Amino acid sequence: MSNFGDRLKEERDRLQLSQSAFGEIGGVRKQAQFNYEKGERCPDSNYLAAIAEIGVDIAYLLTGKRIQNAAVTPMEVALLDNYRHSAHDVQLGVSKLLAETGRAVDRANSLAQYPELPISGLGLGTHSSAVHSEGFAGEGNGI
């Protein structure tokens, strides 16, 4: 089983940050970051709060168990941050678009079991007219 230092390094690697950059975010120098990862020192709560702001899963660091639905990749962290800082109508539009896209994938997968049916043109985005007709995408809303 991995220890705190191993998990901290794993999180730093996941976010593609050097020890210096990661330590700076946490308010410490590279040597302190190195010592945290080696298990020779333990960070304080200010450090943990600071690295949580960039998407580090603090529960995972402490327990070895990931929070469900936590952003994992740097792209997911950025996407979630952008979503959380968007206006409510933008969040609603994104949610509807993703829900409709998911249903399109489900429909395509369900039709794939019937190879005799022509399914050309059925794919992602095919069923997004509901989102467009409500003025969420492509109508000057910045989406």
Summary keywords:
143 residues; mainly alpha; 8 helices
How do the strands and helices of this protein lay out in sequence?
Elements: H1 4-14, H2 19-26, H3 30-38, H4 45-52, H5 58-63, H6 74-84, H7 88-111, H8 129-133
Low-confidence spans: 119-143
Shape call: elongated
**Terminal residue distance:** 44 Å
User: Rounded to an integer, what's the Rg over CA atoms?
Assistant: 21 Å
What does the largest sheet look like?
none
Global mean pLDDT: 80
Number of helices: 8
Helical residues, percent: 55-70%
Q: Give the helix/strand class.
A: mainly alpha
Structure write-up:
- This protein is an all-alpha fold.
- It has helices at residues 4-14, 19-26, 30-38, 45-52, 58-63, 74-84, 88-111, 129-133.
- The chain has 8 helices and no strands.
- The longest helix has 24 residues, at 88-111.
